[in-house]
Protein: Alkyl hydroperoxide reductase
Amino acid sequence: MKKLTALVALVFIFISCSNKTKEKTSFSTEALKETLLTREGNQVSFESILKANEGKTTVIEVWASWCGDCIKAMPKLKELQAKHPEVNYVFISMDKTEIAWQNGIIKHDLKGSHFMANDQMKGKFAGAIDLDWIPRYIVIDKTGKIALYRAIETDFDLIDKTITELK
Structure:
C-alpha cells in the first residue's frame, strides 16, 4: 500500500510540474486588449502591435532602462539582431517615466519598434503576460503564434535556436 501511495504521489507531482512548464502558444484576451504607449504619445493595443508584425518572426523584449540585467544583455541582443536581420524586434519598456524610457532607447541605440507599459512591472499588462523578471524575451512565429514564451537574459542560445527553426 505504501508503494502505491508513493507512486500516486509521484504521478501527481509529475503531472502538476509538467503543466506549469508548458509553454503558452497564444496570448490571453486580457493581454491582447491592454494598451501600450507609443513613442509619439499615442495608445495602441498589444493586439494591434502583434498584427502589425504578422508575416515576420518577431522577438519581443520586455525591459527597462533601470534594469541592470537588461543592460548587461544588450550586447547579446545586438548580436542576435545582426545574425537575424530578417526578424522584427519589439521592445516593451517597464520604465516608470516616459523620459527615462525615451532616453534609454537613445542611450542604448535600440533598433526596433518601441512601446511602454502604462503601469510597469506590477500592472495589468505585466500580469497578463506572466511577467516575473526582466529582461524577458518572447518569440512569435510568422503566423502570430508564440514559439517561445518565457526566456531571460541567459537564454540567448535558446532564442537563437528558436528563431533558426522558424526560418
About this structure: Residues 25-166 form a domain with the Glutaredoxin fold (CATH 3.40.30.10). The helical segments are 2-21, 29-33, 46-52, 68-83, 98-107, 124-128, 156-166.
